[in-house]
Amino acid sequence: MVSVRFSLKDKSAKSKSTIRTSVSFDGQRFVFCPGVSLSPQQWDYKRGQPKQVKDNLDTKKVTDTLKELDLAIRKLYDELQVPFQKVEPEIFKRRIIQQIKGKTPVKEDKVRLEDFFREFISDCEKGKRLTINGTRFEDDSIKPYRTTLKHFIDFQRENDTSVLIEDFNQDLQDDFLEYLEITLEKSRNTSSKYIMCLMQVLKMAVSKKLMSPADFSQIHFNTRREESDNIYLTEPEISSLMELNEFKCEQDEIVRDLFIVGCYTGLRFGNYSNISFDNIRNGTIDVIQVKTKTKISIPIHPSVENILKKYDYKLPASPTNQEFNRTLKELCCRIPELDITFSKMITKGRRKVTIDKKKWMMVGTHTARRSFCTNMYNKGVPILTIMAFSGHKSEKNLKKYIKSSVEDHTKIIKGYW
Fold first, then answer.
1. Which of 49, 91, 286, 332 is the most exposed place for a label (fewest CB within 10 A)?
2. Of 44-48, 98-102, 109-113, 177-181, which range is least confident?
C-alpha cells in the first residue's frame, strides 16, 4: 500500500513556499519537491491540500496538479509491484523523479549545469576567464568553486537527478542551500560562499545565452552572511610570541618571524611570506597586493626592521599555508595568555551554536592581518589611514577585520577622558 501526502516546505514564507511530496510504502519513505509552490495563506494544513477558494485559478491549478501527481504515483507503484516481492525503494524513487517530474535523459543539445561548472573552473585555471581587473585568478580564488562543484555533484547524486542549466530555478536553489546547511551542517557563512559561487557560474551561463536573463532574475540567491567572532592578538600577546627563544627546528622560528611581520604590516599571507630586499624603499615596504593587485607602501615597524636585519633583508621561504598554520598553533600553545577559552557563536545547521576553543587553537595566517587592523584602530589611528595600509576599498570591509572587545573600547574611552 502506498500513501502520498503533501505539505508546505516553509510555513512562514512571505510569498510562496515549495510544496513537498511525501511518499510512504512498505515501511519506506522519501520526500521530494515536484516544482509546485503556493502561498501559506492558501494552504489547508489539516487536509494537506490547497484551500478551496471559488474562482481562484491559482489554487485550482495547484490542486489539479497535486491530484494528477497523487494518481500517477499510485499507478507507478502498482506497475512496479511483483507477487511476493516488495517494491524496490531506489527504483520507485528514480521512476517517480524521471516520469512525474519529467526528468528525462539529458539530450546532447541540453547543457548540464555540472558540465558548464567544470568548464567555468577550467577557463579560470587556464586564464581564459579573467578578473574584473583583467588579471588571472589566483588559485585561492578558484578553490571555493571547486568545492562548490563537488557539493553540487553530491547533491545531484543524493536526489538522483542531473540538473540542466535551463531548469535551474528557485526551488533548486532552496534545495541546494538546505542540503548545505541541514545535510552537511555547513555554517551560514560557508554555505553563503558556495551559493555565491553558484550564482557567478549561472551569471556566466546567462552571458552565454544558456539561461534567460528573466529566469535568472527571478531566483533569489541566499548569500546572507553573519559577522564572525574571529580572534586577533593584542600587542602584549604579540610581544610574548616574539620573546619565544627555544625552537625544535629552524622552520618554527621562521614561521614565528613571518607571522610577526604580518602583525605589523597588515599584509596577507601571500605577501608577508614573500618580502625581499627589492621591496624595501626608504624605510617602507612597497608591495603589490596578491589579491587586489594594488600597490601599497607600509612604514617599517621596529620589530619588522629587526627581523629583516636578522635575515639580511631577504626573508626565508615560507612553508605551505597548511603547514604554517599547524606550526603557528604549536608556538601559540606555549603562550600563557593564549591558553584561555574563546567562545565563538555561529549559525550551523540553521541553529545558533557556540563553539568553545582555546584561543591559541584559533590562530591562523590571517590572524596577523586582523591583529594589525584591530591594534591600529585601538590606538586611535584614523580609519582612512588604516585602509591606506590594509588595502581595503571601503570602511565596511575594513570593519569586518576590527575585532575590538568591550575592554578595548573601554580603554579607548578612558584615553579620551
1. 91
2. 98-102
